[in-house]
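hey m, so remember when u said the tokens were messed up on ur end? i reran from scratch. heres the input so u can diff it against urs
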Amino acid sequence: MSEREKAERLRERLLGLDPQESEFHQQYGAGLQSTFDRQLSGPSRLRYGAVGAAGLLGCLVSGSLALTEPGTVPMAVRGLLALFAFFGLSWTMLATWVLLRGRDHLLVQRTVAARMAFGFTLITVIALALVIFVLERGAVGTPMLATGLALLILAAVVLADVRIERSELAIREQILRLEGRLMEMVEAARRPDGERPGPA
């Protein structure tokens, strides 16, 4: 039998075992859950409360300006203010969801927040560039656009960091699954021929 055939047979045996029965798998899974999915602490509640309050304040200020500014204000500027109001409301909704859920799932909530930050910043940069182009206010808008691009780069770095964390977790789960199957093989090899574990 060639080495490739041996490796293939080993792979089939590993895939045929149920890792859910492994005590090691259960213990590791419980530890992993306690690390990434836990009750909200006091500082976390304050942090999400501050995010929600800031988002609501931004929504109210931007929305009121979009509705009450004089008619001389260009529609493009009003649209930009309405867009900022929507962004603020979205952050408030995210913070409210986390606070009502009462749990702090690091990967899920960090992923949602990172995607929101990147998406909102990208939309802002595009919208700001369009407003500058339409109103022909390059001298005033160029510094704002440069700031937006810097924030977009920062948001992209944060999003990439979250993706790396998710990939690392997926690799750890695959390693755990393989370790669980190997342990099942060792236990099966130690049993006398024909002996099978009875029901719990």
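this time it looks ok to me. The chain has two domains: 41-104, 106-185. if urs says something different then somethings off w ur setup not the seq
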